[in-house]
Design brief:
Length: 186
């Protein structure tokens, strides 16, 4: 943990107003009136400036009598959304053969499709769709190397709905066509 990051009160205030995730863990925002502390990226309603104190160490803020925010969970070392992302990834790995739309995945984890798309991209730097495509292409690559199935059979076996999309995505991710991958060693 970094002891002091050399930001003024005003600079830290700007970071919490902007919900800047880059400063999570470097300082904590404590609200005197509610006795709650948060990460700089917390999306809860912002307090009045006069009611805010900043702490650089989680132990100091807890020793001062503040409790952790239930929304941003600053006491948790990882992102509070890690479990949700793990659940989505497990769902994608398990159901990659099925025709999936974002709403199906969102319904499974119990959040809106917009929120899921935004959160998943924030945590993994890609959308659920592109993540699913990577899973499918990895499965296809394995089948191409280890079975005698045709490219078309592999396409449908791994969940692609159209051969043209399969070829396009495969080429984008593997830099070669499925046939080239099978015959050469791309």
């Amino acid at each position: 943990m970094i002891a002091n990051i050399n930001l003024s009160f005003e600079e830290m205030w700007e970071k919490i107003i902007a919900c800047d995730q880059k400063y999570d863990g470097l300082f904590y925002t404590a609200v005197k009136t509610t006795k709650i502390y948060c990460r700089p990226s917390c999306s809860s309603k912002k307090p009045k400036k006069i009611n805010v104190e900043f702490y650089h160490d989680i132990n100091d803020v807890e020793n001062a009598g503040f409790r952790a925010c239930k929304r941003c969970q600053p006491e948790v070392e990882h992102s509070p959304h890690t479990e949700l992302v793990k659940t989505v990834i497990a769902f994608l790995v398990t159901h990659y053969k099925q025709r999936l739309v974002l709403q199906d995945i969102a319904n499974h984890v119990g959040v809106s499709s917009y929120y899921l798309d935004r959160l998943f991209k924030q945590e993994t730097l890609e959308t659920p769709r592109t993540y699913l495509e990577k899973i499918r292409v990895d499965k296809a690559a394995y089948l191409l190397k280890n079975t005698d199935r045709t490219n078309l059979e592999v396409c449908y076996d791994v969940g692609f709905q159209s051969p043209s999309n399969f070829y396009k995505v495969f080429r984008r991710l593997k830099n070669c066509s499925p046939s080239e991958y099978r015959n050469l060693d791309c």
